Every structure is written in C-alpha cells, then in structure tokens.
Amino acid sequence: MKDIMIATSNKGKVREYKSLLEPLGYTVHDLSELDPIEIDENGSTFQENALIKAKSIKDKCNMIVIADDSGLEIDALNKEPGIHSARYLEGHDYSYKNKVLLERMKGKTDRSARFVCAIALCDETGDHLFTGVMEGKINDQAAGDNGFGYDPIFLVEQFGKTSAQLTMEQKNSVSHRGIATRELLAYLKGEK
Ligand code: IMP
Q: How many angstroms does the Cα of residue 148 sit away from the middle of ligand 1?
C-alpha cells in the first residue's frame, strides 16, 4: 500500500488531494493523524515555504509527504500580498481584502499579477518541487461568485473573465494549482 501524508489540516485541500491521488492507488493521510506541530514558515518564496512544511512533517512520519503554498503577487504593490496572501489583513473577510486591494490599485497603469502555487514532495529519493503560475491582471472591480480568496479581482485574460467567473473546470485548466498538480501527478505516475 502506498501512503501519502498531505501537510495540511484544511479539509477542502485534503478532499481535493484524495480525489487526485486515490485513483493512483495512494492512501491519503493528513495532519489530523499526527500530534500538533508548529511550523515556522519563514521562507521568502512559495517554494521555500512548501519545502519547509514538507520537510518538517517528513521528520515526523515514515511516508511520502506533500505540502503546498500559494498566493497572489501584484507587481504594482511590490508583489504583495505574495507569500503572506493567507494572512493579509488577517481577521477580515475576502470581500474587504479585495476592496482594499482594488483601492490600492486605483490609478495604477501596471495591473499585472499572478497566482503562484508551489507543491513540495519529499520521498525516499529526496525533495521535489512542482510550480504552477497563472498570469493575469487586477480587474478594476470585483466580479463573480465562484472560487475563493482573491478570485473576484483577478482577470484571466484568455477568458475575458475574473477567475471567480470561471467554472471549476475552466479554472483548473489554466490555474496555478491545476498546472502544479498536473506536474505532481506526472511525477507520481512515473512520467517525469
Ligand atoms: P495556502 O496555499 O493555503 O497557504 O493559501 C494561500 C492563500 O492564497 C489563500 O488563502 C488565498 O488567499 C490565496 N490563494 C491561493 N490560491 C488562490 C486561488 O486560486 N484563488 C484565490 N485566492 C488564492
């Protein structure tokens, strides 16, 4: 039996990884099975933080470990919220966070931004990183009810819609997480 530990206690993430990995014959575990552990995500990139998480958990369990880290970089705001995306304006909901970002972007001509997702995997062969990037623009207003987080303000130019206006299928086909996950699956299937 092949076991994989997902270094998260986010049930939504666990469900998503299960749907991807169980068909490949993996049994998927998550942090709720381990003693609580404090991880200091003090890296300066998504990749470093994903690796820090995966390695810390690898020390605690004898199986393949996967950890991911993602966020939104806005060029005109010095790549904010970046690696702090989850904690940006902590305590406020995303409709407020998005409103603040739109306010800060008022009058900016450079509206380029990207979502980045880094997935780290530690197995018996070592550490592996898979990165996906979705380039786009910060829209001038929030639009759409699908997705989560910063999706309503992120314009995906090839669809002419915000990522909150895309179906799950459309978003997965171009998203940072979709790209990184397909790389991860190719590795696990032995294709890479
Ligand atoms: P983490 O990868 O769980 O640390 O989450 C990073 C944060 O980045 C999330 O809480 C969201 O704020 C943001 N984020 C990452 N991916 C997306 C996305 O696909 N849409 C909208 N926001 C995202």
A: 8
